[in-house]
Amino acid sequence: MKAPNEVVTRALLRQVNVPGLDRPAALITLDNGLDHTKPNTFGPGGLASLDEAITAALAADPAFIAVTGKPYIFCVGADIVGLPQLADRAQALEIGRLGHRVFARLKDSTVPTFAFVNGAAMGGGLELALHCHYRTLSGGAAALALPEVSLGLVPGWGGTQLLPNLIGIPAATQVIIQNPLMQNKMLKPKQAAELGIADILLEPADFLERSLEWAAGVVRGQVTVTRPAVDKDMWAGVLYFARETLNQRLHGAVPAAYKALDLLETAKDGDFAAGTAAEDEALADLVFSEELRSGLYAFDLVQRRAKRPAGAPDKGLARTITKVGIVGAGLMASQLALLFARRLQVPVVMTDLDQSRVDKGVGYVHTQIEKAVTKGRMDKNTAAKLYGLVSGTVDKSAFADADFVIEAVFEDLGVKKQVWAELEKIVSPEAVLATNTSSLSITEMAAELEHPERVVGFHFFNPVAVLPLLEIVRGERTDDVTLATAFAVGKQLKKSSVLVKDAPAFVVNRLLTRFLGTVFAAVDAGTPLDVANSALDPLGLPMRPLALLQLVGPAVAYHVGGTLHAAYPDRFSVSENLKRIADSGRPLVVDDQVNEEVAALLVVGDQPLTAEQVRQNALDALAQEIRLMLDEGVVAEAQDIDLCMILGAGWPFHLGGVTPYLDRTGTSERVTGQRFLPPGAASLPA
User: Fold this and answer.
1) Where would I find the 3-hydroxyacyl-CoA dehydrogenase NAD binding domain in this sequence (predicted)?
2) CA distances from 449 to 416, 453, 478, 533, 664 (A)
3) C-alpha distance from residue 178 to each of 55, 170, 186, 249, 261 (Å)
4) Domains in the chain, ordered, with CATH?
5) Is residue 462 within 8 Å of 508, Cβ to Cβ?
6) What is the DSSP string of 567-620?
7) Calpha distance 370→381 (Å, rounded)
8) Which one, of 117, 145, 127, 130, lies nearest residue 211 by Cα?
9) Helix or strand or coil: residue 158?
10) Span 601-608, average pLDDT
11) DSSP-assigned letters across all residues of 266-318
């Protein structure tokens, strides 16, 4: 049995003689025949192969059965590429039941079963491991997760039933619901072991040998595995709190998260058959939802398009970077210094106007390194190396031998032009000059330089260590060598880079400013702050508008808004109320509630809008702006808009970014006369 286009993961069985056992063990290795960049997945063909391997293993009367994966990969779950090909609900039910039936053979086996989790284990791969009686885990496993909710699904092969009864309901709720909704957060091996997902954590160098030895010890009775009892008394309370949290954050917008809560509730009674049957039904419901199609579209963007940026030059043109200079030593500059030192492993030097600022910046870097060591995220040898790589000075001549210099100074064109004019006399003609500007023109910034071709926009998002997007901006005279070097550096920094045309505020800030501007226009007109703030709740965005404004900073938002107003006065207004908030220096929201003292400073009209009107105005504005950006060639395609919003603004997977939602609600066609994506690209077929 094989689905169309399925790359079948074979379950390869071999007999292994293990010292101390009177008969061989059966070792099943999952391998799709491709390298580690193409992980093992399960479709119908892969499940059938595993089923056959288990049958053959049991027939040989082994000392134990163990399942492991090819190098670096255990299994990353179901073949989600095949999900849109399912014809009807009956097929969806069958794929769920097939996985349950095959995996249950390991759970119900009278022969001891082990999962040797040697590498990445996600979704159905982790669920397979949970069905085994015992689990060893490699310290080199790259990622461990049950990420289904982020896609619009639920763990559908036993995860919602097995995990809470193994590690308890609070931790299971975190892994199954909270982590997927937090930019699809993964577990490190140490975290998974501490939670109790694995019985023992082993070094990767000789992982298989040590796993076989440990398993033999279990079988002989020399190793005893103890697991703490699961507290059932707190079950209902934890799920109630989780549901309230979801309501406050998502407002019912992500059906998969609520389905997962229902399934976790079912798991309390321990009726595994009833629980897995409920998983089958939930999976069948969600497979034919718009949220899943949008989630799969977003997943494809993040996993594929982000790794092959549209329009990037030949990487062979990139220059090697041996030293980095950073102009500025404020918070953003300090974050950049730490990132460059960690990822590039080259000297990084910061400069600023006076020594006290430089010392503060270097001190921030050292403090973050110390915290990483204290929390066990960095060893002392690495920390010592990073201490030595990051330095600071007030003398810009330290940049003379730098290959890559990035500025993170005040967002003022004159200031930035002055910085580059001074630095061009110091650095070599080949050095790349990058600016972290969030809205200013790269072309204008470089216009008066002798070598404008080596200036490029390198726009990070705050916090730098968390948000993966990097907008790489090509000025009118930026050459291919500079651009290729920028993309190569972005890859070394482990960022997802998108090529952006030199246009005001680029992609994310332009759209967020238009979005927030529409909301604030409603406030200026007289709409109560709490109505405007909650108007977008049905979308399930990661933040309400006022919380987003506070994160960005009212002063920054006002400044960027002014830049865009100067460029597009017909679409971007400047709100004096936003200036009043910025000038007050006080938070507009506290614990998601409007600060009435700040609200009292606002001057508003007498034409309030309803929440529905605010929401539709905001969506209409986004549709119009995206169409204009595509017509201007700010990015190559609508997919790049969505990728930027997902990675730079946390726009949720269940919306597919921005454009699928605008298409799905009919907003795109009503406002612009056309869809952004072909029918079925991120939605159910017509």
Assistant:
1) 323-502
2) 12, 9, 12, 45, 47
3) 37, 10, 11, 11, 11
4) 10-279 (3.90.226.10), 315-500 (3.40.50.720), 508-633 (1.10.1040.50)
5) no
6) H-TTT----HHHHHHHHHTS-SEETTEE-HHHHTT----S----HHHHHHHHHH
7) 12
8) 117
9) coil
10) 93
11) HHTT--HHHHHHHHHHHHHHHHTSHHHHHHHHHHHHHHTGGGS-TTPPPGGGP
Q: Which residues contact 418 (CB under 8 A, 6 or more apart)?
A: none
Per-residue pLDDT tens digits for 544-564: 899 888 888 888 889 889 989
| CA 86 – CA 79 distance, rounded (Å) | 12
* Cβ contacts of 449 within 8 Å, gap of 6 or more: 420, 421, 424, 433, 455
Q: If we measure between CA atoms, which residue out of 320, 234, 301, 597 comes closest to residue 468?
A: 301
Indicate the angle between helix axes 272-287 and 290-303, nearest 10 degrees: 80
Cα-trace Rg, the chain: 27
Count Cβ atoms below 10 Å from residue 418 Cβ, excluding itself: 12
Structure tokens at 351: 């400069």
Cis previous bond, 463, omega within 30: yes
Copy the structure tokens of residue 471: 């907008």
CB 92, CB 287: distance < 8 Å:
yes
Task: Give the confidence band of 87 by pLDDT, cuts at 50, 70, 90.
Answer: confident
Q: How far apart are CA 383 and CA 370, in angstroms?
A: 8
Torsion angle in degrees (nearest 10) through CA of 205, 210, 211, 215: 180
Name which of 182, 186, 168, 163 is nearest 279 in CA terms. Answer: 163
Q: Are 173 and 154 in contact (CB under 8 A)?
A: no
Residue for token digits 């030593």? 329
Q: How far apart are CA 45 and CA 190, in angstroms?
A: 33
The DSSP 8-state label assigned to residue 421 in this structure reads H
Beta bridge partners of 590: 593
What number of residues does the chain have?
A: 686
CA angle 384, 386, 387 (to 5 degrees): 65
The answer to whether the CB of 413 falls within 8 A of the CB of 440 is: yes
Residue 460, Cα to own-chain centre: how many angstroms? 15
Q: What is the DSSP letter of 401?
A: T
Q: Are 117 and 142 in contact (CB under 8 A)?
A: no
Note whether 580 and 554 are within 8 A (CB): no
Name the packing angle between helices 290-303 and 638-649 (round to 10°).
Answer: 90
In 87-209, which ranges are E strands? 113-117, 120-122, 134-138, 144-145, 200-202
Q: Are 589 and 546 in contact (CB under 8 A)?
A: yes
* pLDDT over threshold 70, residue 3: no
Asked if 406 and 434 count as a contact pair (C-beta separation under 8 A), the reply is: yes
Give the span between the Cα atoms of 28 and 38, in whole angstroms. Answer: 19
**Tokens at 321, concatenated:** 């970077």
**417 vs 578: CA distance, rounded Å:** 28
- Rounded Cα distance, 500 and 339, in Å: 22
pTM for the full predicted model: 0.89
The pLDDT tens digits of the residues spanning 186-233 come to 999 999 999 999 999 999 999 999 999 999 999 999 999 999 999 999
CA dihedral (4, 6, 10, 11) positive or negative: negative
| β-sheet bridge partners, residue 325 | 349, 405
Nearest to 200 by CA among 184, 189, 216, 185: 189
Q: One-letter amino acid identity for 42?
A: F
Buried/exposed code over 591-601 (b: 16+ C-beta within 10 A; e: otherwise): eeebbeebbee
- Strand 348-351 and strand 390-393: pairing? parallel
Strands (E), 308-367: 324-327, 348-351
| Average pLDDT taken over every residue of the chain | 94
Beta-bridged to residue 498, according to DSSP, are: 471
What token pair was written down for 156? Answer: 């559908």
Residue 430 structure tokens:
């080949």
